[in-house]
Give the backbone structure.
Amino acid sequence: MKASLPGHVTQYLKDKFGEKPEAWTYALRSPGRVNIIGEHVDYTGGLVMPAGINYAIYFLARRIEAPEWRLHAVDLDERVTLPLPLTGRSGTLWADYLAGIGVQFQDQGQFLPGLEVVFGGDLPRGSGMSSSAALEGGMAFLLNALLNTRYSRPALAALCQRSSNTYLGIPSGIMDQFASLNGSESGPIILNCHTLSSEPVKNALENYGFVLVNSMVSHNLSDGAYAQRVAECQRALEAIQSVFPRVTHLSATLPDQLQSVSDRLDDTARKRATYVVDENKRVTRAVIALEAGSSIEVGNLLNATHAGLRDLYEVSCDEIDFLQAFAEQYPGVAGSRLMGGGFGGCTINLVKLDRMDDFKADIVQAYEEAFGIGAECYPVVIRGGTDFL
Ligand code: GAF
């Protein structure tokens, strides 16, 4: 095994079991994700450009004789035991993310073995870097190996999304789980969320890097606003389909089609649909700009996405708008926007490398002065998807 398990996880094994990592049959890394552009369009069948990153959750696992799952959340110092076969919710959200995956395998006729699973890492929770998808993807990857089910990575992502949607009741799209499981070492991927086809995008930006700024305002996908956006997009799609029945998903709507059905949409549905249609065009342009190494164009597209998320999609908040506005005018920042589900979490910022340190220090100070909150900054390194150590 490569020695890349975080020290606190290794220490936990030593303290609780008196063991080294080598005593465990499975060891794997499941990354968080960033999304460069293509926000809130995975559930409308749109294009997204996410990447697996340098922050991750690490899993160690082995079979046990007892018919139960013993789950250890190292970062929280919590432990939950679930009897097999898995049934209803456990009452602990992190355990339910893992159990939900087990339930998907069970529903496909798999017999789940007794397991001891230890996990922990450096992925901040509730920051919009998708620790929940890393949990789901890691568990799915583990069970796929353990049960020898041989599902492809895209099929595992679909299984994880099903778990979120049906077991946890969160109507999220597939982007986060797909990015965590299918990330490419060489750069972000472009994913078509309607067909689930993906390919790596060459990042030719020179002298620029991405950094996340965490507002430390917590978002929660299970609150109503996310589900409301999904429903509003569905409403817009149905109105569009009443005139253009061959439009299969909202992101496939052409600007002219949207224009011509405009008076059939209520104000909210019109704003949501306009954002979705615009965002799809921005993602296409961003692929070209990134591959051409045009930091200015990529940055402008990030800023434009933020304006759309704030004014048309209405998923931002004061803290995030402050961080974005500060970054947008900061010398050496090409662009900035809200990343992830919204209502808090992180901004993603494209920053000149030689301005990175100043930017981080200045934005943290300005945010502290404005809101009395200590922001955290995370420089992003793009890494491959979930894999064994
Ligand atoms: C959350 C969801 F889980 C994703 O599916 C996606 O919709 C994202 O918000 C917004 O782009 O992370």
About this structure: The chain is about 40% helix and 20% strand. The first strand starts at residue 26 and ends at 35. The mean pLDDT is 96.
